[in-house]
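Fold it.
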Amino acid sequence: MGLLVDGKWHDNWYDTKSTGGRFVRSESAFRNWVTADGAPGPSGSGGFKAEPGRYHLYVSPSCPWAHRTAIFRALKRLDEVISMSCVGPSMGNRGWAFSEPGNGGNSYGAMADPIHGASYMYEVYLKAKSDYTGRVTVPVLWDKRLGTIVNNESSEIIRMLNSAFDQWGDAAADFYPRELREEIDRVNAIIYPNVNNGVYRCGFASSQEAYEEAFDALFATLDELESRLSRQRYLTGARLTEADWRLFTTLVRFDPVYHGHFKCNLRRIADYPNLWPYTRDLYQVPGVAETVDIKQIKQHYYWSQVTVNPSRIVAKGPAIDFTAPHDRARLGAH
């Protein structure tokens, strides 16, 4: 997991010495918004009008942040509106790679870059900003007309996909309804630091204190969510929202990866009477299962993160059936 400094690639792992062993995630650098009329969004500049065929989404099926955007693209029926391609799961010494990694990794799941013919994702960043400094992450929303990155912050990309392209997608599928926005934002503010990023704060911690701090916050929050989901089908009630999809991409990776690889081993998601059926409920929403690739997920984490797993041996288990009946419909309508 390297980074660019003034446009030059450096193969450097996260520095946790200055933070007491705590993993601190970098802020996303590109924060423009695609809007229905091209007006500026909540941040960045305007000029990015929603148009079919104009934008391209770079993702990795193994990355939970990118996975969110792939789910929204599928559920909003934007497959013919926004093109998409995938980097491979095996991140070597040059970061996310396309179909020809050249870094000793397994390239299955990777696709050629259809826009630039790049070999590595950092080359796409340099097309947008030749002196870019920062981490090279996915997802990336690329503007084919202006030749630049619109946004690389997943939480913002999913909101663009949720509404900006409704003229061509499924306008009836609204995962950020106005009447629930305050509650969705409140739930997101709990889940992001403690669960979504919390598993990374456990796995990338370099001191016992930092690890236990993140571990305790993670499982306290999972217990809170377990209690919430005992009373209602989804996080904000009877309606499936953005908050659920933001949580789902962590839950679906938890038992195959985070429980062992990141030492999040107090309990499995399969041990929770409500969180586990809830995870299966979301997995079984039409269009979602096709976005989940457990083989790629495990390949990425166990092979790529050599600081955590120096042997690069990829775990074979566990056996998980996301298609088993869940009985969550009794708690409320979709």
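The longest strand covers residues 55-59.
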